[in-house]
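The instructor's notes for this session suggest beginning with a concrete chain rather than abstract definitions. Hand out the sequence below and ask the class to guess, before any prediction is shown, which regions might be ordered.
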Amino acid sequence: MNSRRILWTIGVVLVLVSLASSGARAQAPATLHLSGLINDYTPEMGVSGPWEIRGTWSLDLKEFDGKADFSAVLNMEHSDLWVELNPMDSKGLPTIDNPADRVPHTHHIAMTGAKITYNPTDCPLPSSAPIPIPRFEVTGTATVAANGGPFPPTGAVSSQLQVCIDGGTDVATIVPHSNITLVFGAPASGHFGAQAIHGVVRKTDPKPDNGAGQ
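After discussion, reveal the predicted structure:
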């Protein structure tokens, strides 16, 4: 009789522990979803620029497996400065009168299973105050498309990409995740440049765990 009671008690305890563990997992923020905008310019030299860059981005930070997925969609075209530097096209006509001379095009960028580093020390930071604090960086191999096709047109589509998220200072943190920078490696750096491309974090959305990490 005692042995049955002991076994029954053990069974109840195991069920309660399992339920508590499942409940904790269901409430834990397994994925942090961030999204925002990219607004910047490339240099003039080395990338046939300057180019104007505008677009949106999305980042899922998967805390259970320490990986992240990043994507961005960008519009690019030659900036007003490029028009000033190149006032005439090959036919001697003013480039400012022909928007097509700005070579508008699109890029789709995707990076999955990227490495997450918290409190990084190699993120590019602005020179103007207040200087934000790097919160985390995501690094990996990104697939880059141009107008839906291979980029560059020779067929290479993969490049190293560093994505950094930073935010308010320790003294007065109003927005902990406020800024984003993208830094491309070759071959994409031949078009975007090797400098940081800047943007803003528009939204941070913790998502509950729905069984991730099990």
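Then share the key points. Confidence is low (pLDDT under 50) at residues 6-10, 12-28, 209-214. Residues 29-206 form one domain.
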